[in-house]
Amino acid sequence: MRRIWRGVCWAYRQFAIFLFVVFLCFTAVAWWRGAHATGPGPAVPSDAAIEKAMAEQRARSAEAMGQVEARMRAYQAAPPPLRVKAAPVGQDPLAVAHRYRLQDEAARASRDQSDLLAFVSFSMPAESLQRLAREAALTGAVLVFRGLKDNSLKETSAAFLPYSKLGARAQIDPTAFRRYGIRTVPRYVLVADPVGGGCHSDDSGCKTQALSLGGDVSLEYALEKMSASRHLLAPRAESYLKRLGGRS
């Protein structure tokens, strides 16, 4: 029995020595690899490098938006083909002439800074955008988009071309969405100061001074509700409504 116990103790000591030798070998290999490493890992970019990259991205976005607006303005500045339509049977020719005069006034007003904004998105149904484009052409309102379609200048130009042919005018202005607190589209805003004097993107007064109405409704309906309000800009909404023929 003692011989067996001595054999077990001897085997245990040999196994312990073997484990110790293995541990020393792994330790030596790990030390050797650490001492002969090829170099440090990838460096983390500095705050200045990150800020520089963000500034370059903002500059590229601003340049793309400027190109979209320039193409839209160039297309709208081109003289439209002359289209003369006869007055429908039973309709007063003077009324037809009055309507064309209002359209001409709206076209001239659209060349200036408009105070009637329609915040929209390319994700809206095409029928809704077509209706708004026609109404915007009559009133001189501006369709305001938050950004480029699919982050592509080409896609944006192609997507807006049908509405531009209807006489609508648009701009890409993400700051306007923040300025007037726009969270859903469509939303119509009658601006107190179209030039923007003293009104900045972080100024809450821009939103409180403006007259706005949202919902999936037509521009004519929105102007009717605005003109019926007690807001200081209600008379201006009334004048825009007359351009649509909503009020005599």
Would you write up a description of this structure?
By secondary structure, this protein is α/β, with parallel strands linked by helices. Helix content is 56%, strand content 8%. It contains nine helices and five strands; from the N terminus they run αααβαβαβαβαβαα. It has helices spanning 2-35, 47-77, 93-110, 126-139, 153-165, 174-179, 205-209, 219-227, 234-243, and strands at residues 116-119, 142-145, 169-172, 187-190, 211-214. The protein has a five-stranded mixed beta sheet with strand order 3-2-1-4-5. The model has no long low-confidence stretch (mean pLDDT 78).
Condensed summary:
With 248 residues, this protein is an alpha/beta fold.
Distance between the termini: 121 Å
Structural class of the secondary elements?
alpha/beta
In round numbers, the mean pLDDT is 78
Query: Main sheet, how many strands, which sense, barrel?
Result: 5 strands, mixed
- The arrangement of helices and strands along the chain is HHHEHEHEHEHEHH
Given as residue ranges, the uncertain stretches (5+ residues, pLDDT < 50) are none
How many strands? 5
| Rg over C-alpha atoms, rounded to the nearest angstrom | 35 Å
Q: Largest sheet, order of strands side by side?
A: 3-2-1-4-5
Shape: rod-shaped
What's the layout of helices and strands?
Elements (H helix, E strand, L loop, with lengths): L1 H34 L11 H31 L15 H18 L5 E4 L6 H14 L2 E4 L7 H13 L3 E4 L1 H6 L7 E4 L14 H5 L1 E4 L4 H9 L6 H10 L5
Parallel strand pairs: 1-2, 2-3
Antiparallel strand pairs: 1-4, 4-5
Helix pairs in contact: 2-5, 8-9
